[in-house]
Design a protein that fits this description.
elongated; mainly alpha
């Protein structure tokens, strides 16, 4: 079932908060790097747009305004693109190897898996719980 754009963004924001921020996962999944870049972009890009606007007003040529506006809109859309990517990723079913790992982790925690066909969002919730309950060795077993 296809989710709307808004639902995908909301799912991406939820996935962003559910993903465990553990250094061990950085080499295994791109999520942590995307989340880091997303948080950095939300802080830095608006300031860059304002500063660029001031510079454009002060020294820019009026003929450059359309390019400036297009560039600003693109820059301001980058965090939205990050949430969209995370939302699509969260809704993607795990490949068989990660699916087996998901079920193994649940078994080690003595939990019944919540779904029979897990998605990346299910994996994120399970990993978060596993980092709270298990020794970090579970990652490499």
């Amino acid at each position: 079932c296809m989710k709307s754009f808004g639902e995908t963004l909301t799912l991406g924001a939820d996935y962003c908060s559910a993903w465990p921020r553990q250094p061990e996962l950085m080499s295994l999944f791109p999520e942590q790097r995307i989340i880091y870049l997303l948080s950095w972009a939300k802080k830095v890009i608006p300031a860059l747009v304002v500063i660029s606007g001031c510079v454009q007003l002060q020294w820019g040529h009026p003929a450059n305004w359309p390019t400036f506006i297009a560039t600003c809109l693109f820059a301001l859309s980058l965090p939205v693109q990050g949430y969209y990517w995370l939302g699509r990723r969260a809704d993607t079913l795990l490949p068989p190897s990660l699916s087996r790992w998901y079920f193994d982790i649940n078994q080690k925690m003595n939990c019944k898996p919540s779904v029979s066909r897990p998605s990346y969002f299910d994996l994120a919730k399970t990993l978060r719980k596993a980092f709270e309950q298990l020794d970090r060795v579970f990652l490499f077993q």
